[in-house]
Structure to design on (478 residues):
């Protein structure tokens, strides 16, 4: 039976779709709980969700007891909700939003590839190419916001394409849902969740000479949906925090600090998208050869998405590898269309790289379980502290995250030596301890020393130093 006929058999299609969805879910969720959260600072998201649950404040995120404005709250809500039902934040509940987003993204890519190229196998190849790529696989197993943002961009652009490619009566629904997804992107990573898909839509509509859609009734309804998705949280945040304090917090925020050379993405893409990146020369060579032909709108849209986003990221002053993630889906879809007749080879390569990436993850799990400084430190501190409050002096942010998360409390932060008196237990780095001694604070009661990440932390008890003005800080039960 010819390949085209086989691919259109309804019964075979159903089994292929079911197997694809189950297999990709297994790839993403297998062993998701095994590694703890200290790697690469991913504990921060879990800690904010933990403080959200403990404080009962689901509007204003807090990190180490301080108001956190680096990210909007959607990722923290999605971590906190299953954690609240379970009773605590765990590595699994912290990673669940990313894994679910990656899984849903793969399913959307399958539907998209099937629609553009007209074959179930092409949809499977497109989704599988994305999943087996290095960055998508590992970001889908991390407790950060990048995969959630990537999914909202995929979904908003797919729904926009459906609205563009369907009759006007249905376009209202698709455009409205597209803007709702953009709103979720804004609640994940701020303006980027709106700016990226909107700019891609505008570029595509300019190419198609359909810019009137931007001011159509369908889009106007979408703008309203977007406003009703984002504004309620902003209004509640301003009501709880206050306008002036919000402005001060935003002005003092330093979330965008990662700078890199202008050519950063042009070499990073080969590593982050591997092995999908190997197809880039062949794909663009193929597109160049057929450059004189008129492409279908679906292919043009994907090409505009990939090229425009890469240009925008390059022009943006702050650069990081994970910012590339939303550029991977269009590349996977275009490549899926290019190799759609190589399905058996794709299956073999997919299985090979899934095994390789899980092998890498197993190695990280083994290393992480044997070298978990935060868990070891808290395990040694807990018997000494009992239920007593703990204060921190000159501790860095990552140390505070680990203390708060594993001790399940908020450590009192002491910023000046004059605030040290009257505190029962105070943890500080060795350098801070020596500096206090040198400054004339000779009443330090050293209780224990703890090795920690190549340094030493000193646990002291109540002290009486020059200029002491009593303890300050937050309640440890916050």
């Amino acid at each position: 039976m010819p390949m085209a006929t086989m691919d259109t058999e309804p019964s075979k299609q159903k089994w292929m779709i079911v197997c694809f969805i189950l297999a990709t879910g297994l790839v993403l969720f297998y062993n998701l709980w095994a590694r703890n959260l200290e790697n690469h600072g991913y504990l921060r998201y879990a800690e904010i969700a933990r403080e959200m649950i403990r404080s009962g404040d689901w509007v204003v995120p807090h990190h180490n007891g301080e108001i956190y404005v680096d990210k909007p709250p959607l990722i923290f809500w999605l971590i906190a909700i299953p954690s609240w039902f379970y009773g605590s934040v765990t590595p699994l509940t912290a990673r669940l939003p990313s894994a679910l987003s990656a899984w849903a993204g793969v399913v959307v890519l399958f539907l998209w590839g099937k629609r553009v190229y007209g074959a179930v196998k092409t949809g499977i190849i497109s989704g599988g190419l994305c999943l087996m790529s290095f960055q998508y696989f590992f970001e889908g197993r991390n407790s950060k916001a990048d995969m959630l943002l990537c999914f909202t961009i995929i979904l908003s652009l797919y729904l926009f394409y459906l609205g563009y490619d369907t009759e006007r009566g249905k376009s209202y629904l698709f455009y409205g849902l597209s803007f709702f997804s953009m709103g979720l992107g804004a609640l994940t990573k701020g303006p980027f969740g709106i700016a990226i898909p909107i700019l891609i839509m505008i570029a595509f509509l300019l190419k198609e000479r359909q810019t009137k859609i931007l001011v159509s009734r369908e889009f106007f309804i979408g703008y309203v949906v977007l406003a009703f998705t984002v504004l309620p949280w902003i209004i509640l945040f301003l009501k709880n925090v206050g306008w002036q304090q919000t402005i001060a917090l935003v002005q003092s925020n330093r979330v965008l600090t990662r700078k890199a050379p202008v050519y950063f993405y042009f070499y990073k893409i080969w590593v982050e998208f591997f092995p999908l990146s190997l197809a880039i020369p062949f794909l663009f060579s193929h597109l160049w050869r057929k450059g004189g032909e008129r492409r279908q709108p679906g292919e043009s849209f994907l090409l505009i998405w990939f090229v425009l986003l890469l240009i925008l990221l390059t022009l943006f002053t702050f650069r990081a590898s994970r910012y590339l993630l939303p550029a991977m889906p269009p590349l996977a879809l275009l490549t899926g269309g290019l190799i759609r007749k190589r399905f058996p080879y794709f299956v073999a390569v997919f299985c090979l790289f899934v095994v390789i990436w899980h092998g890498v993850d197993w190695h990280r799990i083994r290393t992480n379980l044997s070298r978990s400084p935060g868990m070891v430190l808290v395990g040694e501190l807990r018997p000494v502290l009992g239920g007593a409050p703990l204060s921190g002096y000159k501790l860095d942010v990552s140390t505070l995250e680990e203390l708060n998360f594993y001790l399940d409390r908020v450590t009192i932060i002491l910023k000046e030596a004059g605030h040290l008196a009257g505190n029962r237990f105070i943890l500080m780095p060795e350098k801070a301890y020596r500096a206090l001694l040198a400054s004339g604070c000779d009443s330090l009661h050293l209780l224990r020393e703890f090795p920690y990440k190549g340094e030493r932390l000193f646990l002291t008890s109540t002290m009486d130093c020059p200029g002491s003005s009593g303890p300050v800080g937050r309640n440890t039960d916050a």
Notes: The longest strand covers residues 445-452. The two ends are 68 Å apart (CA to CA). Residues 26 and 61 are 32 Å apart (CA to CA).
